[in-house]
Amino acid sequence: MRKWIACLLVIMLAAAAFGTVLADPEKPEWEYSAKDAKITKYNGPGGDVVVPAEIDGNPVFFIDGSTFPSSREDITSITFSNGIEGFYNVLNTTYSLEQIVLPDTLEVIGNGALGYCPKLKEITFPASLRFINAQLLFSMDSMETVTFLGECPVISDANSVLSGIPSGAVIRVPDDQVDAYRAALTAVSPEQIQPSGRAAEPYHSPDVDFAFDPVSGTITGCNTMRGWIEVPAEMDGVPVRALGTSSFSGCTNLHAIVLPDSLEEIGEYAFGWLNHLTWTEIPAAVRILGPKAFQYYKGYYLDLPEGLTEIPASCFTASRLQSITLPSSVRTVGERAFYNASLREAYLPAGLESIGDEAFAGTSLEYLYFDGVSLPKLGENVFPETQLADVDLNWRASKQAMLDAQAYFDSLGFSARVWRAQNPEVNYHESQLGEYHDGLFAGYSGTMAAIRPYDSYDSVETTGVADGALKGNQVVTYFAVCYNDQVTYIGKEAFADSILEKADLFDSVTVIGAEAFRNSRLKEITIPESVTEIGSRAFADCPALETVTVLCDPAVIPADAFDGSGSIRRVRTADDDGSDSIALCSRLGLQIASLTPTPAPTATPEPTPEPTPEPTPEPTPEPTPEPTPAPAAPSEAAWNRYGGDWYVLEMVSDGEVMRPSDFGAVMVLSLNRDGTAAMTGTGSDSFGTWTADDAGVSVIIDGSPVPGTEADGILTMAMGGMSMTLNREAPAAPFTPAEAVQAADVSAFAGTWKAAWLCGDGMVMAADSAQAVDSWGMFFGSADQTVTVSGTHAVYFGHDEDFAFANGRLENLAGPVEGLEDTGIFDKIITLRADGMLCLQVMGFEIYMVPDGSAPAAPASVPAEGGIAMDVRYTAVQYTVAGVSRDASMLGAEYAVVFHSNATVDFTMAGFTVSLPWSQDGTDCVIDFSGNAIRCKPNGEGLEMDYLGTMLLQMNP
């Protein structure tokens, strides 16, 4: 995602004030950080630029994202010298660039590199390339040819890499790698990826020096500036079994690391404090993770191996993990295990026994799934400051367990709803193939054998199965009610004369109608405790029915309930001694060959066996220098004076004053109780430690201490001619968005809208402010600040795209994007707000807009009485081809239209809905389908559609 201009200023301050400070007041051609072996800024002339691999005898391994700012419009070509191994988000707005030559040593490309270069037509990636993070070559509209010379690299986010090149661009790859690249580059079509006519060029990644203890098989240290590391399976003939304490914490440029299959343990702080580590795979043999092993990990997803029994304290603190699934072997989650992580979803196993204090505190957690039938033991403040909205228990959990869990979350003040997960043995039926009336599932025309109805349809909760809903159905063999706790009614003859073999009535159904399952192929049935009424012959004439479990009061079962079902061999009730079973069978006249009345079981998932970890040699790590010292809790006096959150008022660099408030930004320096520190709100968060004494406070980020003093509630931090002042008071928000509301139909969006507020990356700017106006073209490729909507078509900021109307909003969804902080980064969504504004979400920004009063022209008139009604859904009930008429269900999917008076029609074809223009011809409505006329004539029943001359569709309201 593109960062704001203000973010670049903030990052500059963080890199300079918290990193290398130049003594020479005159700017050199290349600004360089020896600590990270990276170039941070180019100040030389334009034209053809050659980036050196060495500066003043020091090697250059990385090029920072701020090296070539977007303001440089005089650079026409860039050649990177061999020896350079990696980029951050470099060259992501270089309008004048026509040529780029990458080094033969390039191994790593970080997030957002090489984008918005409109004159660049071709690029070649060397055989050395091993890792690509995300958003490579975004918005490269002129790109014609992309060439890869080597084996397919690891790609963190397949949905965004190369997504910004034209569909006509060709991607040349080695002949022996075509399948691999087609599997990895999912953002482009397979046809774009073509063989280059030669095999992949060989490449061997340079060896890395590791400190190694051969007695324990432990790597104890690794200090390298490289971005890609491959850890060997053995060293000097000894298998590598463990990574010691802080073993890789000095590798500040590390983006990706390959771990060997021999690895069994990852020690404390092994990858802590690494601001760029985005990708790794934990081998299956790993059984132990140390505390804080992946603290500040920048990857968005990480698979954990089976066999782990513990997620230790602070293991993933402040990481950017979006979702985590704990293996079934995990028994404990330690204190602060995911504290302040970016987690949105967590999936916890059935065998989990305890979760420690503040384990998920401060995360973005919205959804939580426990695979067990009840909650594990929970510590203090496990979920504070989260947005928890939904909690699911295993589908076999009892209603009481659900209520107990609900009471727990209610006691904490959460608005979260606790559910039981849906029955996994069935699926929701296909879209458009179910019928619903007044909250009742009323019919099904699909082909799935195992189905459940939707929890709700057209915003109406599903409360039951209608009379005769699946009567005579010859497709469905397994039906489960949806677990929404609202389904109470099974209608008369609902499944009569069907081939249904199994039914799941959950524990919400209260009424089973007369002959509901008559003459079906039921093999077993459980009547839940919730049932209070059963109609006559509800289970009559079921020749295959063998097992009946009665959890309700047997007295509600009528005497003729099982008439003609002569194969019943087992009846179970919820009583303790079986007397109810015997009495029930006698009353119903059931002749049971082998009556085995036993208490009805409470279904519980099989327990996961306790894994036995393989023995691991005790590592004896050698001391390794740390770039940032481990945090130590400050004294009570230091905490009282300096601890907590400080808000940046202004920054001064070379006499230039920068205020976050000018950009609607909120920058926060957090000095935490455990001695850790964080600078957030910059779009590129930084982490470190802090200490304090009588002289003042010292904040250590990226290894360099920055001193500060406090006076009268103002904290002043200064170093090398740069300073920053902070106070305790959070600034007021310049604009607070209203809640989104669902639009009744697509016409609510019609018209031209003008941008009012621009929000993103923690920034809020008025669209007409100088900062926003100056940056608009860089962000969106156009200075235009308007959005025009007609039907489901929108032109926003000069971009012309089609949307779909769903869920009361307009959507153009790219789908989940693995590896990005915002998994909807490439989605475009338009919503209405409660205050009447329109909100466009695009490229990680939210633009709030106000109408300017225009709207698309409506038809000259609306059809008069006897014509086609507006805003009414007409659905196909019959179609005619070559004079032969058939039921519309034979089409296999829905055909429907909804005409609107704003000259748009929602046209559903084969289950897919698009918005098209229409015009009036007398009482007829004529749809413009890509230049082809589709005429709709009103008739006595509804309307007749001539579908492109291929068939006639009778559509009724």
Write up this protein.
The protein is mainly beta and 957 residues long. β61 (751-760) and β62 (763-766) form a beta hairpin. The chain contains 6 helices and 79 strands. Helix content is 6%, strand content 33%. The model is unreliable at 1-25, 593-628, 817-823 and 853-861 (pLDDT under 50). Strands 60, 61, 62, 63, 64, 65, 66, 67, 68, 69 and 70 form an 11-stranded antiparallel sheet that branches. The chain has an 8-stranded antiparallel β-barrel with strand order 51-53-54-55-56-57-58-59. The chain has an 8-stranded antiparallel β-barrel with strand order 71-73-74-75-76-77-78-79. Among the domains are: 36-195, Leucine-rich repeat, LRR (right-handed beta-alpha superhelix); 427-588, Leucine-rich repeat, LRR (right-handed beta-alpha superhelix) (Alpha-Beta Horseshoe), CATH 3.80.10.10; 740-851, Lipocalin; 873-956, no CATH class. It starts with a helix and ends with a strand. The protein is globular, with a radius of gyration of 33 Å.
Overview in brief:
It is built from six helices and 79 strands. With 957 residues, the protein is mainly β.
Note the topology.
Layout: H1 5-17, E1 30-33, E2 38-42, E3 47-51, E4 54-55, E5 58-59, E6 62-63, E7 75-80, E8 86-87, E9 99-101, E10 108-109, E11 122-125, E12 131-132, E13 145-148, E14 154-155, E15 170-173, H2 178-184, E16 193-195, E17 211-213, E18 218-221, E19 228-230, E20 234-235, E21 238-239, E22 242-243, E23 256-258, E24 265-266, E25 279-280, E26 288-289, E27 310-311, E28 323-325, E29 332-333, E30 345-348, E31 354-355, E32 367-370, E33 377-378, E34 390-393, H3 399-411, E35 417-420, E36 427-428, E37 434-437, E38 440-444, E39 450-452, E40 456-457, E41 460-461, E42 464-465, E43 478-480, E44 489-490, E45 502-504, E46 511-512, E47 524-527, E48 533-534, E49 547-550, E50 570-573, H4 579-588, H5 636-642, E51 644-653, E52 656-658, E53 668-671, E54 676-680, E55 686-693, E56 696-701, E57 704-711, E58 714-719, E59 722-727, E60 740-741, E61 751-760, E62 763-766, H6 770-780, E63 786-790, E64 793-796, E65 799-802, E66 804-806, E67 809-812, E68 828-833, E69 838-842, E70 845-851, E71 873-881, E72 884-887, E73 896-899, E74 904-909, ...
Parallel strand pairs: 2-6, 3-7, 6-8, 7-9, 8-10, 10-12, 11-13, 12-14, 13-15, 15-16, 18-22, 19-23, 22-24, 23-25, 24-26, 27-29, 28-30, 29-31, 30-32, 31-33, 32-34, 34-35, 36-39, 38-42, 39-43, 42-44, 43-45, 44-46, 46-48, 47-49, 49-50
Antiparallel strand pairs: 1-2, 4-5, 17-18, 20-21, 37-38, 40-41, 51-52, 51-53, 51-59, 53-54, 54-55, 55-56, 56-57, 57-58, 58-59, 60-68, 61-62, 61-63, 61-70, 63-64, 64-65, 66-67, 67-68, 68-69, 69-70, 71-72, 71-73, 71-79, 73-74, 74-75, 75-76, 76-77, 77-78, 78-79
